[in-house]
Automatic annotation (TrEMBL):
<feature type="domain" description="Aminotransferase class I/classII large">
    <location>
        <begin position="56"/>
        <end position="421"/>
    </location>
</feature>
<comment type="subunit">
    <text>Homodimer.</text>
</comment>
<dbReference type="InterPro" id="IPR015422">
    <property type="entry name" value="PyrdxlP-dep_Trfase_small"/>
</dbReference>
<dbReference type="InterPro" id="IPR015421">
    <property type="entry name" value="PyrdxlP-dep_Trfase_major"/>
</dbReference>
<keyword id="KW-0663">Pyridoxal phosphate</keyword>
<dbReference type="GO" id="GO:0005739">
    <property type="term" value="C:mitochondrion"/>
</dbReference>
<dbReference type="InterPro" id="IPR004838">
    <property type="entry name" value="NHTrfase_class1_PyrdxlP-BS"/>
</dbReference>
<dbReference type="InterPro" id="IPR004839">
    <property type="entry name" value="Aminotransferase_I/II_large"/>
</dbReference>
<protein>
    <recommendedName>
        <fullName>Aspartate aminotransferase</fullName>
        <ecNumber>2.6.1.1</ecNumber>
    </recommendedName>
</protein>
<dbReference type="InterPro" id="IPR000796">
    <property type="entry name" value="Asp_trans"/>
</dbReference>
<keyword id="KW-0032">Aminotransferase</keyword>
<dbReference type="GO" id="GO:0006520">
    <property type="term" value="P:amino acid metabolic process"/>
</dbReference>
<dbReference type="GO" id="GO:0030170">
    <property type="term" value="F:pyridoxal phosphate binding"/>
</dbReference>
<keyword id="KW-0808">Transferase</keyword>
<dbReference type="InterPro" id="IPR015424">
    <property type="entry name" value="PyrdxlP-dep_Trfase"/>
</dbReference>
<dbReference type="GO" id="GO:0004069">
    <property type="term" value="F:L-aspartate:2-oxoglutarate aminotransferase activity"/>
</dbReference>
<comment type="similarity">
    <text>Belongs to the class-I pyridoxal-phosphate-dependent aminotransferase family.</text>
</comment>
Length: 426
């Protein structure tokens, strides 16, 4: 209100108004004091890649799937869904909470086809602007209804997690997760930090294919984590951005969540269809919160909608239609499952190829972790300086934390990539 009122009162009074020095500065520019924002550590890499004219350039920065020719992929199941949607175009507003069909199908994927929680209507769920939007809605909800709570975030994590909870003004704490020497899970430290946190804390967990490390707890370790959470009365919030990308099977990749559900936890879950359906730009996702009973779920859902309403009013329709068309049709779902497996398998093949190439070059370092880690990323262990050399000398673009998006590795560039990595790690 103040801004608009100021503008109109300025134009009315313009002729007789003698501004002070500070106001004069404002009149020539309202936003002259705004400094450029720091580059995003992930999406900034894509910007730099696009600006590089080198024919040799390789982008293994952003986690976006490419085929073996380095080209973006539109899944066949998506193409078929698009054909069906085109025959019945819908441009209407969705309800504030989004498409109920899409939500129902998303919940079946996360909680299980025959989940009693779905039948008993105990899950408050809304369509969200992909995984990021789902996390942000949850963070805002957490701040609004449990204003004194904090969030425990693994070290390391996807850089945007920190931004999300920061902008929602939820204080952040961290727990240890990754062991730089073994390049695997630091399970004992993780358990210690969970144990030492105050009872009833909120924890952000990656449901599968941890970003950026590619390191997940084993099934047995998830069970131990779940038991410890139970004894501490912690709340697990799962970010499930890669369901299907860890094992090639979305059902298997939901294992961590199912373990927690079997143990009687109430959970939160952010789902994204960016990676597993290749719907990056469609912003299709779902936020769900398992509640104690149906009445609570109704109240929680209504509040989630209220948080979304002043931000984007209601979520976009097209991506939701694609998701519900695919998951709601047994034939299309079957095709989708095959295609997810195809993407996961190509990445697994590239892991083997990258490791073999490095070993053939005679690298004295161990590259075993490339094939031990799973999902879209390999946390290579390279330093920021080594990454800078890859970029400056070889036009290879990746995040400075040493994360390689295996989805950008192809049979055509794996040799070049291995050679460059070998040179900068000698
Ligand atoms: C990534 O980690 O590369 C992706 O999740 C893309 C993003 O938005 O950061």
């Amino acid at each position: 209100m103040a801004f608009r009122a100021m503008i109109s009162s300025r134009s009315i009074q313009q002729s007789k108004w003698v501004p002070s020095a500070g106001v004069a500065r404002q009149m020539s520019s309202w936003f002259g004091h705004v400094e450029p924002a720091a580059k995003d550590p992930i999406l900034g890499v894509t910007e730099a890649f696009l600006a590089d004219p080198s024919p040799d350039k390789v982008n293994v920065g952003v986690g976006a799937y490419r085929d073996d020719n380095g080209k973006p992929v539109v899944l066949e199941c998506v193409r078929e869904a698009e054909r069906r949607i085109a025959g019945n175009l819908i441009m209407e507003y969705l309800p504030m909470g989004g498409s109920s069909h899409m939500i129902e199908e998303s919940l079946k994927l996360a909680y299980g086809e025959d989940s009693d929680f779905i039948k008993d209507k105990r899950i408050a769920a809304v369509q969200a602007l992909s995984g990021t939007g789902a996390c942000r809605l949850f963070a805002d909800f957490q701040k609004r209804f449990l204003p004194d709570s904090q969030i425990y975030i693994p070290v390391p994590t996807w850089a945007n997690h920190h931004n999300i909870w920061r902008d929602a003004r939820v204080p952040q704490n961290t727990f240890r997760y990754y062991h730089p020497e073994t390049k695997g899970l630091d399970f004992s430290s993780l358990m210690e930090d969970i144990k030492n946190s105050p009872n009833g804390s909120f924890f952000l967990l990656h449901a599968c294919a941890h970003n950026p490390t590619g390191v997940d707890p084993s099934e047995e370790q998830w069970r131990e984590i779940s038991h410890l959470f139970k004894s501490k009365n912690h709340f697990p919030f799962f970010d499930m951005a890669y369901q299907g990308f860890a094992s090639g099977n979305p059902e298997r990749d939901a294992k961590a969540i199912r373990i927690f559900l079997d143990d009687g936890h109430l959970i939160g879950c952010a789902q994204s269809f960016a990676k597993n359906m290749g719907l990056y730009g469609q912003r299709a996702g779902c936020l769900s919160i398992l509640c104690d009973n149906e009445m609570e779920a109704v109240a929680v859902k209504s509040q989630l909608q209220q948080i979304g309403r002043p931000m984007y009013s209601n979520p976009p329709v097209h991506g939701a239609l694609i998701v519900s068309t695919i998951l709601g049709d047994p034939e299309l779902k079957k095709l989708w499952l095959q295609e997810v497996k195809g993407m996961a398998d190509r990445i697994i093949g590239m892991r083997t190829a990258l490791r073999e190439n490095l070993e053939k070059l005679g690298s004295p370092l161990s590259w075993e972790h490339i094939t031990n880690q799973i999902g879209m990323f390999c946390y290579s262990g390279m330093s920021p300086e080594q990454v800078d050399r890859l970029t400056n000398e070889y036009h290879i673009y990746m995040t400075r934390n040493g994360r390689i998006s295996m989805a950008g590795v192809t049979t055509g560039n794996v040799g070049y990539l291995a050679n460059a990595i070998h040179e900068v790690t000698k």
